[in-house]
Amino acid sequence: MKDSVEQVTGKLDLELKNNGGSLYRPRKGSRNFAILRVGKLKGLGKIGAAARHNLRERDTGNARPEDFSRNIHLAGAKTADEVLELWKERAPDKVRTNAVHALEYVVTASPEKMAAMGQTTGEEYLRDAFAWVQEKHGAENILSAVIHNDETTPHLQVMLIPIDERGKLNARGFIGGAAKLSAMQTDFVERVGKNYGLERGIERSGARHEAIKSYYGRVQAVENLSFELPERATGRLGVFGREPVAKYHERVAQNQREVLRTTTAGFVAELDDKDRELENKDRELASKDRELAAKQKQLDKTEAERRSEFQRRHTLEVACDIRFYKGSDKQERIARFQKEYLSKCAHLPEETREIVDILLEDMGGKGFWHIEQERLDREEQERAAQEEGEILAARNALAGYEARSSDGYKIANSAEEHQEIIRLLKENTTDAQYDRFRRGDLSAIDHISEDEVFRRQLLMEVELNNRTTGFEMSNELENLMSDNRGFLKETFGEDRDHGYENER
């Protein structure tokens, strides 16, 4: 239990030399100090987080929600968003990245003294403290001011923008250095604290001032701590009617749970601020990473442009030197330059390629355009030869069907052969030729065969494909296809195995 107390309140060394001062601190219960703390807020993120805490826009572990209505709004904004808007209205045009954007004052007194004052006197003390802050910084620079009565010890919290007489952010001008802070504490006690019987803290005591959120966490936790075990309840007759052991143990456990809860509650706000601070730093680092990436991209682009320009000038200079070279090995130089040039010319500007091509051709060589044209011609010839080979193979395949066309009414003996015939027809015709043929124009495939019977047998296969693919058949086309089938029936009149007389 002792360790828990020291964890919250800190350990007081009874050796005078280790306390950093000439006097022992007053024991708890007899303290009547005026308490004034001021903190620096850097960045709008911290201002917003502090405003949400002060204006109760987020959960506050050491505050009682049922007493929120007892808080007193003295001045400035009533929401965190309004606090940020007020700051932007008052802020100068240029703000240093490391500038202190706002100051936050917390004013109270020793907890036992605040309790002794009572609500009315305590509120007067905090209002006078607010007037002192206004006089020091100017009412126009107040962002928000609230008296919190929803915590164990009432206190005033004021957020403001530290604008000096020049209209600049100047937190250092107000609270910079130990001497100024000490003088501010003394001035506050002389002008405000003494009117309420409050004293200044021990000057130059060596005590370190904690962050505002951490300090209030400790104050609230200490005020709520009670490490004494509750007495076991008894009945009217003493022994008889005594509280059951199980119930007493449960009450003790509940008491200790409350102690632990209040011990940790004061640190919740500080941890939240630390989390937000880390988030802000992560965002700043991410922003810097993006800036560095953009700068690197621009540097890479500039370097690429520099290299391109160097290559362009170097190529032109070498081409001109060779053009006017008179040595016996000129042709060898031309050949070497042409080889090197052709390996790099794709990355050169078109205007540069045109100039170098003209110089090379004047020297009897071949430039990029000439070589590229030869490549395209060669690829075109290869493509034409490939297509010719494919067409020849398709025609040879169709020739096989033509060879057996006189054997019977149909040339396709299976669905697979039907599909192959349609494929071969499309490979041997253009889209326009195939479209004409599927509409009954036999002349569209004269280049495939001059045998009318074979062409009509192919047309009958195309008719079947038209129907299976949903091709729209006009009445005229239906009649034409019917006539085509009639012609084939007459030609193969003795061929009854195919049952053509039962076809549609």
From TrEMBL:
Give the record's GO biological process terms.
DNA recombination
- Annotated signal sequence is none
Which Pfam family, an example, fits this chain? Mob_Pre
The family database entries (InterPro entries) matched by this protein are listed as:
Mob_Pre
Looking at the keywords, is Coiled coil present?
Answer: yes
Does this entry carry the keyword Coiled coil? yes
Which keywords annotate this record? Coiled coil
Instruction: Please give the coiled-coil regions recorded for this protein.
Output: 271-312
Q: Which GO terms describe its molecular function?
A: DNA binding
What is this protein called in UniProt?
A: Plasmid recombination enzyme
